[in-house]
Amino acid sequence: MKRSRIEHWELGSVLTITEVADILRVHPTTIYRLVKRGELPGFKIGGCWRINRASLDKWLSGDITGHP
Predict the structure, then answer these.
(1) Which of 6, 13, 34, 50 is the most exposed, having the fewest neighbouring CB atoms within 10 Å of its CB?
(2) Is residue 3 part of a domain?
(3) What pTM was computed for the model?
(4) Residue 52 falls inside a structural domain
(5) Chain centre distance of CA 29
(6) How would DSSP label each residue in 3-55?
(7) Is residue 29 part of a domain?
(8) For residue 14, what are the contacts with CB-CB under 8 A and spacing of at least 6?
(9) Could you give the number of structural domains in the chain?
(10) Which residues are within 8 A (CB) of 38 and not within 5 positions of it... i.e. 6 or more apart?
(11) Residue 42: which domain range?
């Protein structure tokens, strides 16, 4: 049986709500509100929100907005 490997760099490219809040220097509740409203692109894994680092960078630069 073949297992897929997750490279180390891939693990760092998905951020938690707390990590995004630390980066943006805001309270985690603010990030929850943004992703729930679809203003910040994010996705859930097992009920926990995650944000792709590349998507966050694009969102910060104004290239993308939340969910399509």
Answers:
(1) 6
(2) no
(3) 0.75
(4) yes
(5) 14
(6) PPPPPHHHHTTEEEHHHHHHHHTS-HHHHHHHHHHTSS--EEETTEEEEEHHH
(7) yes
(8) 50, 51, 52, 53
(9) 1
(10) 66, 67
(11) 12-61
Whether residue 23 is contained in a domain is answered as: yes
Whole-number Å distance between alpha carbons of 65 and 68: 8
Classify 31 as helix, strand or coil.
Answer: helix
Amino acid in the structure at residue 60: L
Between 26 and 13, the higher pLDDT residue: 26
Residues 14 and 52: beta-carbon distance below 8 Å:
yes
Residues 17-66 have pLDDT tens digits of 999 999 999 999 999 999 999 999 999 999 999 999 999 999 999 876 65
CATH number of the domain to which 35 belongs: 3.90.105
